[in-house]
Design a protein that fits this description.
Elements: E1 3-16, E2 20-27, E3 31-37, E4 56-62, E5 70-79, H1 82-86, H2 88-104, H3 112-126, H4 131-145, E6 167-169, E7 174-176, E8 188-189, H5 193-201, H6 209-227, H7 232-243, H8 245-261
Parallel strand pairs: 3-5
Antiparallel strand pairs: 1-2, 1-4, 2-3, 4-5, 6-7, 6-8
Bound molecules: zinc ion.
Length: about 270
C-alpha cells in the first residue's frame, strides 16, 4: 500500500526545481512527512493556498518503496487558518510552534499526541486565546513529549514547592530553591512568580505580561542551550515584537477580550 491518506498540518513549504514545491507536513496518522507537490507554483495549480504553513488538509499521498519523498496527489483544505497568517505577530508565535515541531519530530514516526497538541493550540489561538500563553504552554508540553525534563514545581533537593529566588538549571530541567541554588552547573535566575504562572497556564491560557516575558525568555534560553543555536523563528519573533508597536496594541485588545472569555474556556 503506497497510497496514503491522512489529515495533516503544513509545517513548512518551499520552492523546488521547475515549479514544484517541497512540503513538510505533520500528519496525524503517518507522523512527519516530506512530500513534493508537482507544478504547484503554476498559476492554475490545483493546490491553491492549501500548501501554505498552518493549513490543515486531508492529504492524499503517494510514496514509492524506499523513497524518502512522497508525492502529494491531493489536498482538501479542512481549515485554512488564514487568520493566523494575517497578523504578523500571531504568525511569528505560530512559526515558533511549527519550527519546534519540525526540530523535535522525526520522519516516519507517528506522533498523534503532538498532532493533537498542535491542532488544539492553533484552534485556541484562532478562538482568541492569549497568543504567548498558548505558545509557551505548547512548547513546554512538546519538550516533555520529546523526553525533556522540565519541572518547575518542586525543588529536587528539598521538595520545597514555594520558591524564593529560585534558579533554573537547564542541564537537569529543574528549579532549585534559594538554599540549594549554589550548586554547580549553568543556571538562570527566575522570579518566584514564574512557577505559579506556569502552574496557572495548565488551567487557563492567561498569564501576566511580566510572566509572559520571563517564561518566554527561559524557553528561548533553554532551546538555545539544548539545540546549540537560536531558532530562526525566535529571531523572527523578537524582530516582530521589537518593531511592531501597532500590532502590540491590537494584541492588548485581544488580551482584554480573553480575560472575559477565560472562565468559559478552560484549557484542555
Ligand atoms: Zn530546595
Amino acid at each position: 500500500m503506497y497510497l496514503q491518506r491522512s489529515k495533516g498540518i503544513v509545517i513548512k513549504s518551499y520552492d523546488f526545481g521547475e515549479g514544484h514545491r517541497i512540503v513538510i507536513i505533520l500528519t496525524r496518522r503517518l507522523g512527519k512527512v516530506r512530500a513534493v507537490a508537482k507544478g504547484s507554483r503554476r498559476i492554475k495549480s490545483k493546490f491553491g493556498a492549501s500548501l501554505e504553513p498552518l493549513t490543515v488538509n486531508e492529504f492524499m499521498l503517494y510514496r514509492k518503496p524506499k523513497r524518502e519523498l512522497s508525492i502529494i496527489t491531493g489536498a482538501n483544505t479542512v481549515r485554512s487558518n488564514l487568520i493566523l497568517r494575517e497578523d504578523m505577530r500571531i504568525y511569528a508565535y505560530c512559526a515558533l510552534m511549527l519550527e519546534s515541531v519540525d526540530i523535535l519530530t522525526t520522519q516516519d514516526n507517528p506522533h498523534p499526541g503532538v498532532y493533537d497538541l498542535l491542532a488544539g493550540s492553533l484552534e485556541e489561538i484562532s478562538a482568541g486565546g492569549q497568543v504567548p500563553a498558548v505558545t509557551w504552554l505548547f512548547i513546554f508540553k512538546l519538550l516533555k513529549v520529546a523526553g525533556y525534563r522540565l519541572d518547575f514545581f518542586e525543588c529536587p533537593a528539598c521538595g520545597r514547592k514555594d520558591f524564593k529566588k529560585p534558579r533554573f538549571f537547564p542541564g537537569e530541567g529543574s528549579l532549585y530553591c534559594r538554599r540549594y541554588s549554589h550548586r554547580k552547573g549553568v543556571s538562570w535566575p527566575l522570579s518566584a512568580e514564574v512557577p505559579a504562572a506556569i502552574k496557572k497556564l495548565s488551567i487557563e491560557y492567561v498569564i501576566s505580561k511580566k510572566a509572559q516575558g520571563e517564561i518566554g525568555n527561559i524557553i528561548k534560553k533553554f532551546i538555545k542551550y539544548e539545540f546549540g543555536k537560536k531558532l530562526k523563528s525566535i529571531n523572527f519573533l523578537e524582530r516582530i515584537l521589537n518593531e511592531d508597536k501597532r500590532v502590540d496594541m491590537n494584541l492588548k485588545v485581544m488580551k482584554e477580550k480573553n480575560v472575559f472569555s477565560g472562565t468559559d474556556n478552560p484549557a484542555k
